Amino acid sequence: MYNHSKIPSQTQINLPQTTENVTNQLQELYEMVAILSGGMETLNDDVMRLSSESICYKNALDPFTQDLSTLKVSTQEQNACIDGIKINQEILQQDVASMEPKVKDMKSNSYDGTFIWKITNVEEKMGQQLRNIILYSVEVVHNLL
Question: pLDDT per residue over 92-103, tens digit each?
């Protein structure tokens, strides 16, 4: 149990000084709470502003996103078309190459009764001519008969 006899009789409690300390501490706490609440208001305002700006930027980007997907599809279609054109071009080049000898043959034909023919590989044939001096032409032999 507690023994009252041990408490000195001269113990004094200084209430005005203790009350003043508590008042100062409460005043400091009040100021800190005021500063923190002001900071929170600023942060809330910033959050609202940033949220609003974010929505604006998103709304501004949405058409570009749609345009980008449209451009991707268009690019794929153009690439497919170009591939088809390349294949057609190769086929046409083969056709032209196969027609060149026919055109050369047609150029050498005469329709006025004069026969002119082109001799290809002349050097090679000249070497053969030295061995076989006579050259025969179907049209000339046919006309002589």
Answer: 999 999 999 888
